[in-house]
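FAQ: What does the model actually see?

It sees only this:
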Amino acid sequence: MLLSLDDYQRFEETEDALWAARAEAAHKKGGYLGTNKSEALLKKFIDAKD
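And it is asked to produce this:
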């Protein structure tokens, strides 16, 4: 599929707005891990054995 540069930029702007709205809603709801829990979770995945 090919898109014009204008369509691609419009798509990117729309997608960015969508993720920003989701992040804002999660922030208001308190539905996020925060820095410390995120770091601990990432370390757990990195250190995990198969």
